[in-house]
Amino acid sequence: MIVRDIEDIKGTEREVKADTGTWTSRRMLLRSDGMGFSFHETIIHAGTETLIWYKNHLEAVYCVGGEGEIEDLTNGETHQIRDGIMYALNGHEKHYLRAKSDLRMICVFTPPLTGKEDHDADGVYALMEE
Ligand code: 9YT
After folding, report:
1. What CATH number labels 16-110?
2. Which of 13, 14, 23 has most ligand 1 atoms within 8 Å of its beta carbon, as the pocket-test mutant?
3. Which one of 8, 27, 40, 67 is most buried, by most CB atoms within 10 A?
4. Rounded distance, CA 107 to CA 27, Å?
5. If 0-12 CB within 10 Å is exposed, 13-18 middle and 19+ buried, where does residue 76 land?
6. Of the residues 10, 107, 113, which should be mutated to test ligand 1's pocket, given the most ligand atoms within 8 Å of the CB?
7. Which residue's alpha carbon is at the smallest distance from atom 10 of ligand 1?
8. Domain boundaries, the chain
9. CB distance 75 to 42 below 8 Å
10. pTM for this one?
């Protein structure tokens, strides 16, 4: 069994801050943990906008705090995000995430992130080999 305290992840290499400064993510499970998915707590910082496009991954996100919105750039639709809202990028949708207050998001990726990815200029994560 794997049991982790997020307080023990903060300040380690499993806590990643985006180059853009718009989010901080604590990667609680990565590919090396052998679960077949990765599991993250991501804080999208208040007042920011982030362009994201997971071309190579499927992702589900559950908001447990804060307020913001997601704009789906494939169809122009915008959805409000708050505690209790989940979205799943089952079509690799390119999107903007905007946070009015700090958004606390629980995220699952398949295939799992290895931990070395960062967004490129298009908001894309490459598929990584370990
Ligand atoms: C909200 C969201 O898309 N989070 C993804 C995980 C985070 N960007 C990370 O750990 O790289």
Report:
1. 2.60.120.10
2. 23
3. 27
4. 9
5. exposed
6. 107
7. 25
8. 16-110
9. no
10. 0.90
